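Incident review: delayed structure delivery

Summary: a single-chain prediction request sat in the queue longer than the usual turnaround. Root cause was a stuck worker, restarted by the on-call engineer. No data loss occurred. The affected request and its eventual output are reproduced below so the record is complete for anyone auditing the incident later.

Affected input:
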Amino acid sequence: MRKILLRLGLTLVLACLLALATVPYWVSAVGIPRELKVFPGMELSLDLKPPFRIHDQMGLEVTGLFDTENLGTSVYRVNLFGWLPLTEVVVDVVPLLRVYPGGQSIGVLLSSEGLMIADLGAVVDVSGVERFPARDAGMQPGDVLLSIEGHRLRRPEQVSALVNSLAQERRVLEVVVRRNNRTIALQVEPVLTRPFGQQSQTYLLGIYLEDPAAGVGTMSFYHQETGRFGALGHTVTDSRGRPLTIDRGSIVEATIDSIRYGSKGSPGEKVGFFDGDQDVIGIIDSNTEFGIFGQLEGALPQSVFAQPVPVAFAHQVRLGPAEIYTVLQGNRVERFSVEIVKVVNQTRPGDKGMVIEVTDERLLRETGGIIQGMSGSPILQDGMLVGAITHVFVNNPRKGYGSFAEWMVYEAGLGQVEEIPAKQSVSREVFFCM
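Output delivered after worker restart:
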């Protein structure tokens, strides 16, 4: 009898250890979330079936709807068979956040003044010696080149003309850069070189410059009370695919002139134009994996919505019909039908939260689906802002990815702010070596 009891005890212990070891599997398989955010008064039920049971902080079993009437955080415990603890579910009841969906085409400027130094490079002088003039002068990637010998800079082509004109008379030139909100004066010695395949000689500094006009994108949303905005839905990168630190960047109104049709293997594009000297409508203060964010300047953009709409939480987004707002011609924001065909269960911020498919016949006829310049176009479902378009499937332009609006508004500093890690962007081809 004693041996039998011992065996039963060992079996029970092993069973408990096995159950504990498989907790992550059960949590994942059943789809139990670790954290949920809801609006006050919003219906919420996990609808778990036996042998799973949920208890509140008082130990009482929750069999119906969660209490979401009062703002605050509550912790619920999920048990297997009523006694084996599996996980905890944190329910945050937070204030309802409303924003105006965007859809307006915008021009993105990396810097309101000067030129972004994307990288430093070597220069081979006329004697065949490799030199690093910019690096030796103290320049760094990410610096904004403001002036050369007092001449302010706005376009990359100015740099070559100025350097070759001034270097004829001066061996060393004074350049002014901005780095982390500090203005620094540096002395650089241009290097005389003969570019490969050319007969003429030219002076170079050994810097790669980004055109300040990053390209055309779409505004995703703005908040009337604070003036905060979000756009693009993904990071702005340099010509080598690296995220850019945007120093005093800005957005201006853009006009769509024509559409380049998209097809399999060849993404389409909005062909738009904007003037860097026109009135700035917003200042960019962050560039993350969820888009660019900043502060609107002056009058608020004209919206097709008479009232702001609620921002959906990631767990509220469902498969089914939705709509996007974007511009195909001029400045007119239009509505188009799409289908959300995949939703990724994200309990932590991450890009590519959903996959959408264009179903609108007119949009397919005129663009072929999702095209460049459409990044940031807001996605609405059930009257709520659920996300923004981020990328197109190159081999199927009818489909593309979207980011959840919940993560985007947090990144903008709205709602319940969380710390979100900063991670094809607007179309950019120009890369200058000076």
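Verification: The domain at 22-93 is CATH 2.60.40 (Immunoglobulin-like).
Action items: add queue-age alerting; document worker restart procedure.
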